[in-house]
Amino acid sequence: MRYLTFALTKGRLAEQTMELLESLGISCEEMKDKHTRKLIFTNEQYGLRFFLAKGPDVPTYVEYGAADIGIVGKDTILEEKRKIYEVLDLGYGKCRMCVCGPESAAQYLTHNQLIRVATKYPNIAKDYFYNKKNQSVELIKLNGSIELAPIVGLSEVIVDIVETGSTLKENGLTVLEEICPLSARMVVNPVSMKMDNARITELIQKMKNRLAADRK
Ligand code: PRP
């Protein structure tokens, strides 16, 4: 039996996914060692392999078939636009993609003005402003701490993830418009889906059942 390889987004998504798999009897002891420098972990019993990657790299590994399955946020799926199948909403990692800024910036969103938008997600921001709102904007790509941009005058608004809203609140910013809800998703390589259909669909079904049972 060939290994089915998982690319997991490093951090909380990977941890929650391993907990979910563990509840199905699929565990990976060597992954729990916090000090290990190993990059790839195996479960011989089920013929599974796991590795951790940065979120935006997960769809890349899956599109090329270096991983059969990926666990990644919906934000990253929308931003990366890879040829992969999204097969399951895992329900955790829930947050929202929003246009945010100071209250005073709300006027710029209704008067179709050419404003600057800072974001880690230029494709999502471009699609929202150009295709949904028909508003021309100047996009500025940043790599983190996006909330700084409107505070220091780099942009009028930002497009960013809001989870609890506390980062916005502590910095005098607010949600101006909601773009879409987000959560962790399972994605699959299209060729793997054909070649290993029975194994992959069985796994998806088991995960679905567990998630439904947990919701009750
Ligand atoms: C994300 C996001 C916000 C924050 C939202 O940043 O970009 O800054 O979390 O969470 P909250 O609504 O619960 O405050 P992350 O911590 O991933 O780091 P980053 O700033 O480097 O993107």
Defining traits:
D-Maltodextrin-Binding Protein, domain 2, elongated, 2 domains, 6-stranded mixed sheet, 5-stranded mixed sheet, alpha/beta, binds 1-O-pyrophosphono-5-O-phosphono-alpha-D-ribofuranose, 216 residues
Rg calculated over all Cα atoms: 19 Å
Q: Which H/E pattern describes the elements?
A: EHEEHEHEEEHEHEHEEHH
Largest sheet: 6 strands, mixed
Shape type: elongated
By DSSP (H or I, 4+ residues per run), the number of helices equals 8
Rounded mean pLDDT is 96
**From the helix content, strand content and strand pairing, which structural class follows?**
alpha/beta
CATH class category of the largest domain: Alpha Beta
Strand order of the largest sheet: 2-3-1-4-11-5
Percent of residues in helices comes to 25-40%
Bound molecules: 1-O-pyrophosphono-5-O-phosphono-alpha-D-ribofuranose
The count of strands amounts to 11
In CATH, the topology of the largest domain is named D-Maltodextrin-Binding Protein, domain 2
Poorly predicted regions are none
- Strand percentage lies at 25-35%
Fourth-tier CATH superfamily name of the largest domain: Periplasmic binding protein-like II
At CATH's second level, what is the architecture of the largest domain?
3-Layer(aba) Sandwich
| N-to-C span | 35 Å
How is this structure best described in words?
The chain has two domains: 4-93 and 183-215, Periplasmic binding protein-like II (D-Maltodextrin-Binding Protein, domain 2, 3-Layer(aba) Sandwich), CATH 3.40.190; 95-180, Periplasmic binding protein-like II (D-Maltodextrin-Binding Protein, domain 2). The relative contact order is 0.19. The protein has eight helices and eleven strands. The model has no long low-confidence stretch (mean pLDDT 96). It has a six-stranded mixed β-sheet with strand order 2-3-1-4-11-5. The protein has a five-stranded mixed β-sheet with strand order 8-7-9-6-10. The chain is of the alpha/beta class and 216 residues long. The protein binds 1-O-pyrophosphono-5-O-phosphono-alpha-D-ribofuranose. 1-O-pyrophosphono-5-O-phosphono-alpha-D-ribofuranose (PRP) is lined by residues 120, 144-147, 160-167.
